[in-house]
Amino acid sequence: MRITKNTWVLLLILLAGAGWVAGDSAYFRPKPIAFKVPKGWPRPVYDFSKNPLTEEGFALGKKLFYDGRLSKDGSFSCGTCHQQFGAFNTYDHSLSHGFNNAFTTRNAPGLFNLAWQKDFMWDGGINHLDLQPLAPITAENEMAETLENVITKLKADKEYRKLFKAAFGDETINTQRIGKALSQFMLQLVSSNSKYDKVKRGEASFILPEQLGYQIFLQKCASCHTEPLFTDYSYRNIGLKMDDVLKDPGRMRITNRSEDSLKFKVPSLRNVAMTFPYGHDGRFFSLMSVFEHYRKNMVVSATTDPLFRNKLALSNYEIGQLTAFLYTLTDSSFLKDPRFAAPGANNNTKPPIDIHR
Amino acid sequence: MKYPVYTLVLLTLILTGLNFRQPGPITAPAGKLRLVFHHQVGKDPLALGTLCRNGLGDRITIERFKYYVSHFTFTDSKGRQWKPDPQYFLIDEEIPDSKIITIQVQDIDIRQIGFLLGVDSAKNVSGIQTGALDPLKGMFWTWNSGYIMAKMEGTAERSPSPGHRFTYHIGGFRFGMNTAREIRLTIPQTSQPVREVHIAADIDRWFNGSWQIDLAETPVCHSPGVLAMRFADNYQNMFSIQSVH
Hints:
The complex is a heterodimer of chains A (357) and B (245). Chain A has 357 residues and is mostly helical. Chain A is globular and about 95 Å long. Chain A has 2 domains: 48-190, Cytochrome c-like domain (Cytochrome Bc1 Complex, Chain D, domain 2); 195-333, Cytochrome c-like domain (Cytochrome Bc1 Complex, Chain D, domain 2), CATH 1.10.760.10. Chain A contains 13 helices and 2 strands. Chain B is mainly beta. Chain B has helices at 4-19, 121-124, 204-207, 226-235, and strands at residues 31-41, 44-45, 51-53, 59-75, 81-82, 88-92, 100-105, 112-117, 140-141, 146-156, 165-171, 181-186, 196-202, 220-221, 239-244. In chain B, the strands form 2 sheets. In chain B, strands 3, 4, 5, 6, 8, 9, 10, 11, 12 and 14 form a 10-stranded mixed beta sheet that branches. In chain B, strands 1, 2, 7, 13 and 15 form a 5-stranded mixed beta sheet that branches. In chain B, a hairpin with an 8-residue loop joins strand 10 and strand 11. Chain B starts with a helix and ends with a strand. Classes of the chains: A mainly alpha (357), B mainly beta (245).
């Protein structure tokens, strides 16, 4: 038997190659993205050390966010219910539509500044942003799909295998990675460039009604809709009568405590001009109807916030000024930011797509 | 040697190539302990889908029975305690392999085994986990974040819900609602050294323990709270050592 020197050399080349291939993952160097905390804002609560932001992770998250394959019949993506034009709420819908023409039981809130939010949903039932997508994906009235099926569909797609590898170092596709990638996209939805922000930074100034509205706001609203995020993330009952079809007990559903009955998370008022309809079930179609609620229609019960024992007095004059101020919270650069836009949507100045089919 | 240069270059390549691999974790060369879980209803082994009678006289058919175990601790005859790296196992009656678990232990002189039935609260608040804790295992509530620590489903003649079903999804990790339970089992001295422990879990205890659960009144438990806590108090006492080898 004659093993030539050439054979040895060949074998060695192969071995060398193998060493490099196996070591490949050591070269996994996705491009990091620095998360910028706007000046004067608190520290984010999301733990970025467990899911460092990268270009690759963001790109994957964005693709997932706009991919209908996350739903059973392929037609509902996260982006169907969370539309950029409406600061990622369901634009102009009290309740959103999901699979099989079912309605969601609550109004889809806008999605922004999620890195500062500890709990999610109107009742705070979800305790981590990464977990949030699991609820709509598996809910019968939303995307109605199983996690196994979503993973199977993604694994079958060569493009996704490539994107997961670029974002995480190998082609493994699992629930955790889907959650992390979607978070990468959602965490970067930071809205901090409204006129209000520019005024705070000294780059612009309020006109008189806005200025007066701001003063009234600080007096009457800011204890719950606290700056700079325009929510303190607490749960409060502001005297909305329980809808007799939805029968939604709010925070009590999570804590089982009767003192939490009818309490809902204080929503941020950033971009509020774009996030109508309002309230956890979208019952208010305009800011005016919210004001009418605060000053007239409120139903004061045992768990209603102590601030509202005598409802909330607002004159027509104050409502006018407040409205002027609330409009300064619209961040049009966020609403049109091409980084967040649905694929194929060349710009977002057009009215949004109608999700009725 | 005709190719000294080639060989040198290639060797360097091989070595650098190998060098770029991450070193794997060093596993301590210790003993292996097998734990085998046996599920029964009273004295009879559990057979899914088969009619049986629980200790309260109810005629029931169990279709599904699974629970998490984690956080093992071992105590030796000198009272020394040690904990292997945290590992989570989903014991599932439907998957026979899941009922046999192997744990690396430092010593085979074991007098006490402790473990957590359920998932610790830290893992309930830190996003999506993998492996046995992957939410796709169906042991996670998506609308009210948290693990289902233990799950039993089936039918019972006296259950008033549709199809006479009963579904017990026991979970909750917050203070005052924590359904994870510390289990402690003592191994008889005579059975040293310990290589394999057979643990029995008596489903009867779910109904008939610190609390009596009336199937006709409470056929469903789907959220953290008082009822879930009662089930947890009950299943805390369902384990016993069957045999040691």
